[in-house]
Design a protein that fits this description.
single chain; 204 residues; alpha/beta; Rossmann fold; five-stranded parallel sheet; P-loop_NTPase; NadR/Ttd14_AAA_dom; NadR/Ttd14 AAA domain-containing protein
């Protein structure tokens, strides 16, 4: 089974989708004899709490923003390495990826910061896994944008779509194949079916 990465700009329904896919695959695993995937939860929230960062650091302090993204990248590597070691089924579904902090570093800090992260051991350890996996981008511009007080919120639609474009551009530049769940696919069951189909197609 290939690993699955659910990624994209902030507030596009990634965690909701991962949780729903997890529930659906519980049933599928029983019926079709699949081994259940390990679920790698979003590491950024834990880093924000444990390292005493706030979402304001991302947009207001380039130095703090870069430090945060470097911590997130390292945490993602640890999470995927641990999942590989502990998970007997040898596949997992990631809520985000190692690419996410690099995209945010590029957008909020600059090209040089992102370039340095792209040469880091952490990213080099993650990139190969993404290239072998199933990468699904949740498109920005959806209708359920809600401020939960923790995650970074786009200041306007233009910024939101710029981050969305930054994800696509970096995926293309790094040669990582991906597909997109349209912002117009608002029904959660349909979004889950999209992920399930991607997994099934990868088995053929």
């Amino acid at each position: 089974m290939k690993n699955v990465y659910i990624i994209g700009a902030q507030s596009t329904g990634k965690t909701t989708l991962v949780n729903a896919v997890e529930c659906k695959l519980e049933e599928t695993a029983k019926n079709d004899g699949w081994q259940r995937p390990f679920i790698i939860r979003e590491v950024a929230r834990t880093v924000l709490k444990d390292k005493y960062f706030s979402r304001e650091d991302i947009s207001e302090s380039p130095k703090r923003a870069l430090q945060l993204q470097e911590h997130i990248l390292a945490a993602q590597l640890r999470a995927e390495t641990a999942a590989t070691a502990l998970n007997a089924s040898n596949w997992y579904i990631c809520d985000r990826s190692g690419l996410d902090p690099i995209v945010y570093a590029r957008y909020f800090v600059g090209e040089d910061a992102a370039a340095a992260m792209l040469t880091s051991e952490a990213w080099l350890g993650l990139e190969g896994r993404m290239k072998k996996g199933i990468v699904i981008v949740c498109e920005a511009g959806c209708t359920w944008l809600i401020d939960d007080g923790v995650r970074l919120m786009p200041k306007d639609m233009e910024e939101w779509m710029c981050v969305d474009t930054a994800f696509r551009d970096l995926l293309k530049t790094r040669g990582i194949h991906f597909s997109i769940i349209s912002k117009d696919t608002t029904d959660l069951n349909e979004r889950v079916e999209y992920v399930e189909k991607a997994i099934q197609d990868a088995l053929q």
